[in-house]
Amino acid sequence: MTTPTPGIHHVTCVAGDPQRNLDFWAETLGLRLVKRSINQDDPETYHFFFADAEGTPGTSMTFFPWENLSQGRVGSGQVSRTAFRVPEGSLDYWEDRFDEYDVDYDERIERFGETVLPFRDPDGLPVELVEVPIPDDDPTVPWTEFVPENAAIRGFHSVTLWLADPMTTESLLRTMGLEEVGVEQAQGDAPGDERTRFEASGPVGKYVDVLPTIEAGRQGHGTVHHVAFQTPTDEDQMAMRKAVQSEGLRPTQQIDRHWFRSVYFRESNGVLFELATSGPGYDSDEPLDALGERLVLPGQFEDRREGIESALADVTVPRAD
What we know:
Blueprint: E1 8-15, H1 18-28, E2 32-39, E3 42-51, E4 60-65, E5 78-87, H2 91-100, E6 104-105, E7 109-111, E8 114-120, E9 126-132, E10 156-163, H3 166-175, E11 179-185, E12 194-199, E13 207-212, E14 223-230, H4 234-245, E15 255-256, E16 261-266, E17 272-276, H5 305-311
Parallel strand pairs: 1-4, 5-9, 10-13, 14-17
Antiparallel strand pairs: 1-14, 2-3, 3-4, 5-10, 6-8, 7-8, 8-9, 11-12, 12-13, 15-16, 16-17
């Protein structure tokens, strides 16, 4: 039997300037840089991982800063928005912070009974903060170097998919163990007229919203590259891979990404999905208290360190002091 996915593992996006990306996601949003590495398919490009204090699965937003790409456009076959959880009552803090840091944000909206604050990062990536109650046993650990605990981002809330033919993707989501939990009118954030919500089994990153659209998109700065879903163990991943194949899709073989193991496939509308294991984790190759301090190269790249480092732009990780 297939173990239902607990929810989102990570979301990977395309950025432009690497220093600007670091400054915004580490300082302005207060996420921890838990891994400074390279794109393993393009090793002359950084791969930054921003997460909670411990890099808990379900909290990491990652970026490829491809400076030479053009601006992207969100459209059909893409993750159109990525939403994060924040504690109830914290959106006043975030609006004040966005004013201080000159962040482009919109008025709050209500969606499925929750309050949502939409905004964009410096590359134009659509992002949202959603107020939710954070239980005492929540698995996420807030990072408080720049943002106080009572406002700190606590992992993913949801992703929104823009799809030309939602029915086929909805079938896939059900196969992956998500259940439809509601439908409501879309509120000006997409060309579709209905938003359908699916819920996974875990406490973090458990929602996937689906909206119909045929609006054309283009990958580039400010767009999502792929969304990864948790398949905690190798056995879970292999079972899910078989389930995905049963939907007529063509997943890759397992690929070792050093901090987790991955399987990739494009679902029927073109969104790139990944299945990712929980381990070994971001602290498997450097101490927890030193995450993100140095450039980490997966083993097969270590003997190329000098050349790789010389091709990468110099960056400075923001520090509160």
